[in-house]
Amino acid sequence: MRIAFSAALLLAGLSAAAADTAKDPSGTWLTGDGRAKIRIDRCGPGQKLVCGKVVWLEVPTTESGTPRTDLKNPDPKKRARPVMGLQLIDGLKPDEEKYTGEIYNIEEGKIYTVSLERESEAELSVSGCMLKVLCGSQTWTRVPDVNQQAANKN
């Protein structure tokens, strides 16, 4: 009886872990417009949250050859920080089959409420709203976890 109960607990834990893995958005994703790749990883206490940062840009430099910066940031002190490596997603919380929280949009310098939900192994649905009225969504596509810009410099 004790062995059967222990086995049942172990199997329950394995199925919960499998379900958690199924919705886990960790990986590198090409944005819907193809202009950036975002690396999403687990973060926070117990690795229960998700965070994401820019790891590739289609156009990483300005016309003058300098790295792109966070020019539209409402905080003037942050406008000189490079976009490459910038954390856009910070501490999204699990919410049923998705993760919810806030995402920073570099293009506009604005923060949106967002939810990330895995549609499949290769697709991530990203839905966001500003002021609960201006909403939109796009599908990001999984790409290899290779820093392609660093590879292209060689």
Structure description:
This protein has 154 residues and is of the alpha+beta class. It has two helices and eight strands. The protein has helices at 2-23, 148-152; strands at 27-30, 36-43, 49-57, 87-95, 98-105, 110-118, 123-130, 134-143. Strands 1-2-3-4-5-6-7-8 form an eight-stranded antiparallel barrel. The longest helix has 22 residues, at 2-23.
Outline the biggest β-sheet.
8 strands, antiparallel, barrel
Poorly predicted regions: 1-19, 148-154
* DSSP, total strands: 8
Cα shape: globular
* Helix/strand/pairing category: alpha+beta
How much helix is in the residues?
Answer: 10-25%
> Termini separation (Å)?
62 Å
With helices defined by DSSP (H or I, 4 residues minimum), what is the helix count?
Answer: 2
The strand order across the widest sheet is 1-2-3-4-5-6-7-8
Gyration radius, to the nearest Å? 18 Å
Overall mean confidence score, pLDDT: 83
**SSE arrangement, N to C:** HEEEEEEEEH
* Strand-residue proportion: 35-45%
Q: Give the quaternary arrangement of the chains.
A: single chain
Q: Which descriptors apply to this entry?
A:
154 residues; alpha+beta; eight-stranded antiparallel beta barrel; 8 strands; disordered C terminus
Task: Please summarize what this structure is.
The chain has helices at residues 2-23, 148-152; strands at 27-30, 36-43, 49-57, 87-95, 98-105, 110-118, 123-130, 134-143. With 154 residues, it is an alpha+beta fold.
